[in-house]
Amino acid sequence: MQPELVLVHTSIRYHGSPITVMGRPDTGLLVVADFDTPAARAIGLITAHRRPGHTVYRVVGHREDLTTVTAAAAVVVAERTGTSRR
User: Fold this and answer.
1) pLDDT at residue 8 above 60?
2) Of the candidates 43, 17, 19, the residue with the CA atom closest to the CA atom of residue 9
3) Secondary structure, 3-state, 7-42
4) How many angstroms from the chain centroid is the CA of residue 65?
5) Distance in angstroms (rounded) separating the CA atoms of residues 44 and 74
6) Nearest to 20 by CA among 2, 1, 34, 4
7) Within a 13 Å sphere around the CA of 45, how many CA atoms are in the beta-carbon half?
8) Do 73 and 62 contact (CB within 8 A), yes or no?
9) pLDDT tens by residue, 49-64
10) ∠ Cα 59 3 58 (to 5°)
11) Domain extent listing, the chain
12) Residue 6: strand pairing partners
């Protein structure tokens, strides 16, 4: 069986750059600005955790489980830009 791969292009922006989440949920998901360009750079990491019947996502510095990859990417961007509400 092949491992699950995630590639999500979001509507989220980091200093004007589009955000993409990519990776394997069992090892970690990278939050990447300017994916598939020479300026691509990882700006954060999301971890996935299996719960009964669903998967939740976690971001360092954020206390709550997040229900979608996009929500987790938004938290990463907020943490990086200093706009998070802890």
Assistant:
1) yes
2) 19
3) EEEEEEEECCEEEEEEEECCCEEEEEECCCCCCCEE
4) 13
5) 11
6) 34
7) 7
8) no
9) 999 999 999 999 899 9
10) 10
11) 6-81
12) 23
Q: What is the C-alpha to C-alpha distance for residues 52 and 45, in angstroms, rounded to an integer?
A: 23
With a cut of 90, say whether residue 85 has pLDDT above it.
no
Give 25's contacts (C-beta < 8 A, 6+ positions apart).
Answer: 4, 6, 48, 55
Q: Give the whole-number percent of the chain exceeding pLDDT 90.
A: 87
Question: CA 40, CA 6: separation in Å to the nearest integer?
Answer: 17
The counts of H helices and E strands in the chain are 1, 5
Q: Map tokens 């750059």 to a residue.
A: 17
Going by C-beta distance under 8 Å and a sequence separation of 6 or more, which residues neighbour residue 64?
A: none
> What average pLDDT does range 29-52 have in this prediction?
96
Q: What is the pTM of this model?
A: 0.90
Cα separation, 6 vs 12, whole angstroms: 17
Query: What is the rounded average pLDDT of the residues 31-60?
Result: 96
